[in-house]
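re: the backbone from monday

yeah here it is again, tokenized this time
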């Protein structure tokens, strides 16, 4: 496993960041966010998970309820409370993260109100979290040049199972989902710390490393796109199909809240994604022209 290249020195240099995204498929910035803000999010999330019996008083995982995937976890009320925690949601809107994405995608970029919280148990085969399978996030939204920001909420050294990306895989064809073997060559990851941010393009292959520790791995992933492209309705209004933007009732009065851009067009729920159009960063591999969405969820 290679080390992610740290782009901290270029965090205000849009051109260098875009070049890095175009060539490697990712941008990693160590210590971008204040660690205290990330630790507050971890404290808020784990308080709910502790109350719900996911972890004990030392944050060690308990056998119950043991949901392995985000969607299953959403059925659990304590997990849902963790997901709506204000300090967790606030992370998406912190100035250094918004500024970094704006340098890459442009000033109209915005995060989807729908956010993903991961609470990943130590791996016990045959049960595996879907994030362990190699995938490309384009399949989830069908929005070209969408980027994902992945944030550790705690120290996540490699044995705790952080995210790995396959540099330059965004230049290749679509890949079939398969389990990532951490000994594979040509992959990169890091010993993550609170405040680090990994951003990757929606055609970049990525997967989580196995959690071989005794700890629950807690991280968040937030997705971003430009305002001049239609956005998937479920990422803006949420899975339950509300009439107003997800979380706006809870957080609209918070000083950090940012509504989605006015006039944003939505891709209706059930919309079947088409092969990606041209990217503004790199030439898309012709193999994507034959791409069709696979049934079922991969992550
Ligand atoms: O954190 C994980 O386990 C998986 C994350 C992932 O696949 C993603 O952010 O797209």
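seq for it, each position gets an aa:
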């Amino acid at each position: 496993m290679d080390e992610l290249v740290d782009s901290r020195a270029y965090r205000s240099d849009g051109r260098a960041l875009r070049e890095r995204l175009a060539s490697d498929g990712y941008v990693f910035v160590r210590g971008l966010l204040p660690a205290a803000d990330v630790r507050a999010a971890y404290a808020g999330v784990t308080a709910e998970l502790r109350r719900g019996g996911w972890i004990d008083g030392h944050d060690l995982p308990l056998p119950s309820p043991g949901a392995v995937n985000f969607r299953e976890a959403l059925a659990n009320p304590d997990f849902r409370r963790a997901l709506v925690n204000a300090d967790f949601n606030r992370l998406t809107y912190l100035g250094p993260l918004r500024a970094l994405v704006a340098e890459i995608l442009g000033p109209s970029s915005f995060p989807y109100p729908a956010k993903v919280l991961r609470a990943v148990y130590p791996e016990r085969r045959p049960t595996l979290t879907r994030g362990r399978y190699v995938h490309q996030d384009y399949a989830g939204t069908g929005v070209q040049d969408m980027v994902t920001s992945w944030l550790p909420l705690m120290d996540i050294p490699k044995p705790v199972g952080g995210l790995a990306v396959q540099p330059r895989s965004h230049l290749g064809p679509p890949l079939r989902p398969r389990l990532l073997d951490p000994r594979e060559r040509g992959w990169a990851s890091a010993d993550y710390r609170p405040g680090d941010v990994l951003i990757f393009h929606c055609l970049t292959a990525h997967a989580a490393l196995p959690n071989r520790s005794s700890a629950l791995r807690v991280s968040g992933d937030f997705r971003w796109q430009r305002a001049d492209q239609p956005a998937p309705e479920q990422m803006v209004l949420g899975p339950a199909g509300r009439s107003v933007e997800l979380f706006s009732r809870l957080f609209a009065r918070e000083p950090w809240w940012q509504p989605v851009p006015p006039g944003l067009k939505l891709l209706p729920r059930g919309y079947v994604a088409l092969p990606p159009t041209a990217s503004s960063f790199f030439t898309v591999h012709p193999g994507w022209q034959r791409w069709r969405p696979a049934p079922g969820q991969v992550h």
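The longest strand covers residues 217-225. The chain has one domain: 2-283.
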